[in-house]
Amino acid sequence: DDDIFSSAFCENSEKLINVHLFAVAAKYYSLSNLGVCTPLEDVLEALKGDSEGTAGIKPDEFMNNKKSHEVQVMSELVDSIANYCGIKQVIDIGSGKGYLSSFLSMQYNLKVYGIDSSSSNTNGAHERNRKLKKHWRAYQSRGKANLKSQSLEKANDRPVESEINCKTINEELLNNANSLPNQDQVKIQDLVPSCGFLEMATLETSTEAEADLVIGTQSQETKLSDEVLAILNVLPTDAVEDFSSSHNCVELCEEEKVQRKMTSLQTKARKSSESNLYFPLTSCITAETELNDIITDLEDCMMVGLHTCGDLAANTLRIFTAKPEIKAVCSVGCCYHLLSEQFENQEECHDQVWGFPMCQYLKDKGWCCGRNARMSACLALERVAVGQMLPTESLFYRAVLQVIIEDIYGVTKSDRHVGKTFSKSSSFIDYVRRSLKKLELDDSKLPDSCIMDYYEKYKHRMNELEAFNMLKVVLAPCIEVLILLDRLCYLKEQENIAWSGLVKLFDPVKSPRCYAVIALK
User: With DSSP H G I counted as helix, E B as strand and the rest as coil, what are the percentages for the chain, rounded to 5?
Assistant: First the structure.
């Protein structure tokens, strides 16, 4: 209990005196140990029942291992939520280069708007979109060829069964596809959904092999009649062109007319799908953002965010609760150090919307983490646990640099950043000089000998620095818990939420910020 854990610190000096007890306490209060998370498998089971996932493209061919892992896991969950809520529109907040957006659109045929504040990101997403179309066509062709090849091989084993099933499928299609004229003469023998896009073809005759292709496709996708009706409902009313009007001199038979209409439908469906993989938009999102001003055809939808930075994760949840059109949310936050905190500074800002705390419970307590704690929350304990150690030398360089800047230049705070200078530096002297230039400080008054004196003065404390940072790593999950539970409590306080929970989506070694806040209205 708390009394036992408090003995890790000296009662008088408040210094840490029992490191082992400190580590045990930190583990005790970690999210994995508190039992408040809902397992991903349980969520998918509740949303999807016994339905199988969609087979399609492999994201690792388009993105690195970490991003591939994140996109594949999250997109499956998003699709399941969208299906459960009966929606087809997704808004990806902080979409960046569009990895998740384009995958959701291509793999699951969802209409996705990706919103990012950086125009360079959305411009890059447009270009990436263009390149993906080429790969996507290849995927479609390859997938269709493989499916047909496999189905033709299986067809030879059960010709009678194929013929019976084909007849049943055709009868079901004709009975349900009310949008098609002269149903008694129409036969659609081949409807092959290719990873989210529909490819339709009409055949005048059927063979047992082609019949089995239909059956094999049906078993992997949804029912044939549903697919036809779906594509007819999605397309505008003028999508099916009447070719007979342009052939006045030739009287076409009714079956030929239907065939031509279906061919036109196939072409327009493919063009429609390929032209709009998704829509990258540039806009800065705040808690007061009116989505209707950004998305003109806003309809019932869900919001998603894959590693939404700082306050953006909190604002995503606020927009979700405020807008009736948004039926669900799935948000994975990151960059806790960039959160704005209501009680961090003593100044009163009544109109400002803060990133932390969100829930009334912590607001009433006036809770504050502080920047150092939020920085610690960004550390990756699981990576350190498997041997991916902290960059002690670069942290040491940065710490000594700060001493130099304070001693020599009298600077204690700066809006400028050193950035990734360590990886480009050949020595500590080189690191200091590069950093001073970035900070726009004159390095001519600082001889090499002076720089090295500082290095030698603090070199013996490098182990101390490493130990300090390891303690921060151990504590990191506890601080992340506080931030995530604050967001969950905020959702629990809302009256229009049917269900909300925390779900561990990713492997924390591959993706340290692995927890999603999910809610359904």
Answer: 55, 10, 35
The answer to whether 97 and 307 have CB atoms below 8 angstroms apart is no
Quote the CA–CA distance of 56 and 61 in Å, as a whole number: 12
Provide the terminal-to-terminal Cα distance of the chain, rounded to the nearest Å.
Answer: 36
pTM, two decimals, is: 0.69
> Which residues, at least 6 apart from 354, have a Cβ–Cβ distance to it below 8 Å?
311, 314, 340, 341, 342
CB of 512 closer than 8 Å to CB of 307: no
What pLDDT is attached to residue 32? 87
Please, what's the b/e burial string for 342-378 (b: 16 or more CB within 10 A of its CB; e: otherwise)?
Answer: bbeeeeeeeeeebbbbbbeebbeeebebeeebbbbbb
Q: How far is CA 208 from CA 150, 162, 222, in A?
A: 14, 6, 21
Q: What would the pLDDT profile of 419-441 be if each residue is shown by its tens digit?
A: 899 999 999 999 999 999 999 99
Q: What is the pLDDT of residues 26-65, one digit of tens each?
A: 999 999 899 999 999 999 999 975 445 455 555 555 578 8
Helix (H), strand (E), coil (C) string for 478-508: HHHHHHHHHHHHHHHCCCCCCEEEEEECCCC
